[in-house]
Every structure is written in structure tokens, then in C-alpha cells.
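Please, structure for the following, as C-alpha cells.
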Amino acid sequence: MASLPKKRLLLFFLIISSTLGFCLLSAFAELKLFEHPIKHDGSVSFLVVGDWGRRGAYNQSRVAFQMGRVGEKLDVDFIISTGDKFYDKGLAGIDDPTFDESFTKIYTAPSLQKQWYSVLGNHDYKGDVEAQVNPILGEVDGRWLCLRSFILNAEIVEFLFIDTTPFLDNYFVNSKDDTYDWSGVLPRQNYISNLLKDVDSALKYSTAKWKIVIGHHPIRSNGHHGDSKELKEQLLPILEDNNVDLYINGHDHCLQHIGDKESQIQFLTSGGGSKAWRGTFKWLHPKETKFYYDGQGFMSVEITRDEVTIVFYDVFGQVLHIWGITKQLDAAI
């Protein structure tokens, strides 16, 4: 084999080294970490709403109004969105007026002028995904923060926000007339494999008293969509191995709470931010179901070092379900 001139040889090794470095960085990329301060008394409170972006229609504005009232009462620290934020096909770009019409002009209560932490839903993937995760939207409305997957640390509790849409086979094999923006996701199996490694690593190294995972799609649900087989097979074992306390999702347009007899995880759905699906459910987990409501609403979560309290509300602000757990006793209240 002919030898390369020294300059070309050096250039060759530089190219190979930089390529390998990029591959290693991609394969072992860490999730971005955000910090959020807790209250002076050491507690954290927040609201959770999902499947909402309809320019105020389907009672989105009414749900937002009640969120404002509850948010003020609890002095919430932030709001979590479980995805599907702009119907029907996400955002067309960073200048899409839908952002203002479905978010900024709807959630106007003083108590909702806090940081919003959001994950992507399947409808968000029907638009320009990069627009939703673009920091420019955070300049348009300072409350906005949306990434594919990330970590939020609030001292006593750590949240893991996970991009669940790429896990589901249906969007890739039975998409029919729907078009999804898979930029940044393909090759899909590499994306999922790397994300699962990052999730497992983040949970293992977390020292927080409570661990909460947020995703758009349910792992277990009695709703219209039901369980997500791919998440049960690939994500759930990691959550169980790492003692996750709560898994919170949207996607099914309902409010529900399912316990788990095989682990400590509580499965909570808050997908009633606007249009609800009355009377459409599968009832897959009758024995484990603690609460199910096929209407519009949202949920609140209050956390101290020793206790978590969860409350579900309907579109009128009426309390539908209260549940709590203490860490020392590891038993429901």
C-alpha cells in the first residue's frame, strides 16, 4: 500500500478523530439539565395540563381560567404541559400565529405567568418540531420552554421529560395521510436507544427524594388510546428499576389515576386541556384504577420532602379526586 504524504496523513487523522468524536458525543449525549428553585418552606407545587392548543375552543379558555384560580391558591412554582400543544398540526414555524392564539392569549392569569415546561406530542410532530424547541419562542413568550427530552431539578424532586412519540410504531407504519417531522429522530432505533440510555443514567444518578417522569403517551391507560405497548416494553422496566414515583402523561383526552400492584409507580393522565372524548374508553385496568374522568380539566401536585398530594379538577374547578403518599410510610393517605 502506498504511503500518504505527511500533510495528507495528518489531515486524514484529524478528519477521522473529529468524526469519531462526533459519533461518541451523539451516542452518549447527556440530557440538558435545568434547575428550578423551591419555596422557602422547602415545598414545590405545580399544575399539569395536556392536549390543549385549540385557540381557546372546546373549553380550553375555561380550563385555563380555573387553572389560574387554583394556581393562585397554591402559589404554583411552574406549569407542566404533557404535549399536543397546537392542534391539529403543530406549529408551521416560529412565526406561526397559533403560538400566540393558543398559548399566550389563553393562559393570561397572573398565577400562570410562571415557567412552562413542555414535552412534544404526536400532533406537535405533524408540524415544524424545530420551531417548538427553538429558543426564539422563549423570547416571544418568556414562559416557554420545550425540548425533546430534558431534566428538571427542584432539589427535593427531579423530573425527567421524555420524547415518547418516536417510540410508537404506528406513526411510522400506519401514518396514512399524516406527515410527521422526523428531523433529528432518524435513524429511529439509534435515537430511541440513546434516549433510553440517557434516561437510565439520569435516574440512576439522581439523588432527589422524589422522581417523576413526564411523557406525552401513556404507559397504562383506560382511555381511547389505551396502553402504549412500546413504552411498556422499553421504558417501563427502566422506571421500575430506578424507583420512579410518578409517570405523568397526556394523549388520552381524559383525567385518570392508575396504581401499580407490581411497583410503586402511579400512572397519572392529564390530557383534558380542551377537547375531551366522552364515553370512549377501553377500561383495561379496572382493578388498578383509582380514578377516571372522561371530561376536561387539569391536575395539581404539591410536594414536600415527605409527602406528595395530587388533585384533579374539572372545567368548573371542582375537585374530582385527591390522592397522596408519604415517603416514610410508603403508603397512600
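The CA atoms of residues 36 and 154 lie 5 Å apart. The first strand starts at residue 32 and ends at 35.
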